Amino acid sequence: MESNNTNSINLNKFISSTGMCSRREAEKLILQGRVTLNNRPTELGNRVFDGDIVKVDGRLLKPKPKTLYIALNKPIGIVCTTDSKERKNIVKFVGYPERLFPIGRLDKPSEGLIFLTNDGDIVNKILRAGNNHEKEYIVTVDKSITDTFINKMSNGIPILGTVTQKCKVEKVADKVFKIVLTQGLNRQIRRMCEYLDYEVTKLVRTRIMNIELGQMQPGDWRELTSEEMEKINKMIATSSKTEEASTVIQKPKKQVSKKKEGPVKNDFNKKSASFRKKSSSSKKNISSFGRKKKRF
């Protein structure tokens, strides 16, 4: 019984998708009689359906794992690391059955939107500072916000041996402001505020590129929809993956001994393919990992 071709993939494309070789080289393998499909000889044009067994020289080929893109509202206290020694690391907190790693980071005392994925290529493209991908934050400080504060924050603050790029800063309330960054310096917003003698009491990232935090509560996470990923891929289509993209353009310097430079390190819509929420008990005790999440 034959299946619909829309649920299948061309044999040479399947072989290539496993990372073994290119499609053209896969065609050669097929023509040389080195490929079997469900233990039968193959020819060009054969199609592979779910559950089919493809072997090259008797060796079973397995498709690459599905690429995963997850949006998490990181709670305060969770650490953006994959280090298993860290009890409150972000990967353990999410508890996804497949290996993931965070795109960028949020400080332990900060909360809000962060992506996790198994796609290393997209990580590089999003993180490079020179690619100008926006991240939006709502920040609460310890005293009243003045026009001078807004003006200075917008036009650049000297931290970590450089001056921060100009950015959008808007007063939201007496002690609350919104800031949109395209940089990712270490503890950037906190350091900028400290320079102006302000202390951050709460910091929430509400947006990354086209994705907003939306109705997600701390501890909630969901998979990004195909529509959201389509927009992200368009936004990063021209993004550089090279190291040069993350450096600040400076005037040429004379060749002298290398000096140590300051370290430069580099929200969600209601519609979703998959949306998971931490149970109420886990919200009360954020260190309780591994509890089942409700799906709705």
From TrEMBL:
GO biological process annotation, one example: enzyme-directed rRNA pseudouridine synthesis
Alphabetized CDD domains for the sequence: PseudoU_synth_RluF, S4
GO molecular function terms listed in the Swiss-Prot or TrEMBL record: 23S rRNA pseudouridine(2604) synthase activity; RNA binding
Biased composition (Polar residues): 237-249
SMART domains to which the protein is assigned, alphabetical: S4 (SM00363)
Region spans: Disordered: 237-296
Highest taxon in the source lineage: Bacteria
Biased composition (Basic and acidic residues): 258-270
Domain called RNA-binding S4: residue spans: 9-65
Pfam families in alphabetical order: PseudoU_synth_2, S4
Keyword RNA-binding included in the entry's annotation: yes
PROSITE patterns: PSI_RSU (PS01149), S4 (PS50889)
InterPro entries in alphabetical order: PsdUridine_s_RsuA/RluB/E/F_cat, PsdUridine_synth_cat_dom_sf, PsdUridine_synth_RsuA/RluA, PsdUridine_synth_RsuA/RluB/E/F, PsdUridine_synth_RsuA/RluB_CS, RsuA_PseudoU_synthase, S4_RNA-bd, S4_RNA-bd_sf
The EC number(s) this enzyme carries: 5.4.99.-
Reaction(s) this enzyme catalyzes, per UniProt: uridine(2604) in 23S rRNA = pseudouridine(2604) in 23S rRNA; uridine(35) in tRNA(Tyr) = pseudouridine(35) in tRNA(Tyr)
Top enzyme category: isomerase
Stored SUPFAM superfamilies: Alpha-L RNA-binding motif, Pseudouridine synthase
Alphabetic keyword roster: Isomerase, RNA-binding
NCBIfam families on file: PRK10475.1, pseudouridine synthase
PANTHER family: PSEUDOURIDINE SYNTHASE FAMILY PROTEIN-RELATED, RNA-BINDING S4 DOMAIN-CONTAINING PROTEIN
Protein family membership: Belongs to the pseudouridine synthase RsuA family.
Protein name in the entry: Pseudouridine synthase
Organism field: Tenacibaculum adriaticum
